[in-house]
Amino acid sequence: MALVFAAIAPHGGLAIAEACTPEEMRMAHATRSGMEELGRAFAATRPEVVVVATPHNVHISGAFAVVVAGRVTGSLDGTPQPVELDVPGDAPLAWRLLETLITDGLPAVGVSFGSNDPSTAVAPMDWGVLIPLWFMGGRQDPPLPVVVMAPARDLSAEEHVRAGAAVASAAAASGRRVAFIASADHGHASRL
User: Fold this and answer.
1) How far apart are CA 88 and CA 136, in angstroms?
2) C-alpha to C-alpha distance for 84 and 102, rounded to whole angstroms
3) Rounded Cα gap, residues 68 and 94, in angstroms
4) Which residue, among 86, 87, 83, has the nearest Cα to 16 in the 3D structure?
5) What are phi and psi of 81, to 5 degrees?
6) For the whole model, what pTM was predicted?
7) Helix 91-103 to helix 157-174 angle, to the nearest 10 degrees?
8) pLDDT digits (tens, 9 = 90+) for 53-108
9) C-alpha span between 99 and 108 (Å, rounded)
10) Does domain 6-181 have CATH number 3.40.830.10?
């Protein structure tokens, strides 16, 4: 198959109702509504796996990172109700993406956490992954498998565009319905 869905999604905690106090519920209503709409559009495409690019996961100097761990788990701290996800990693697509990035001449490394065997490793899930997945695949039963990737802040914009093409190529070669989410900061420049 190929990419069947792509989105740029915010990752502010106020997007999740369960993460908000009663006072905070009045804030970011449009963001929550937008994320719910993204979730409906996502579900309509019936993806089998999700690739999330997050700026808040592991940072590797001079290289893209692809998480190859067997599971990815995380939670938001300080929320009135528990906000946590535990999703399977998608090793075949993660390794295919890593190989595609390298074959395309882009510096990339596979990263795992804890276990010496990536298939049994559990990588930490940052809020840049958790918040979009809360609306798009992470709370399905069973949750959709995920591939987490991190940009390289010291590589050029052109190299990041090429990395996006590598995601599309790896998705097409996978034979599966793949969704791509670019998790993006949405409020660092606001003047509230």
Assistant:
1) 14
2) 33
3) 6
4) 83
5) -125, 155
6) 0.91
7) 130
8) 999 899 999 999 999 999 999 999 988 888 899 999 999 999 999 999 999 999 99
9) 9
10) yes
HSE-up (13 A, CA, CB side) for residue 80: 11
Domains of the chain by residue range: 6-181
Q: Max Cα separation, the chain?
A: 50
CB 101 within 8 Å of CB 145: no
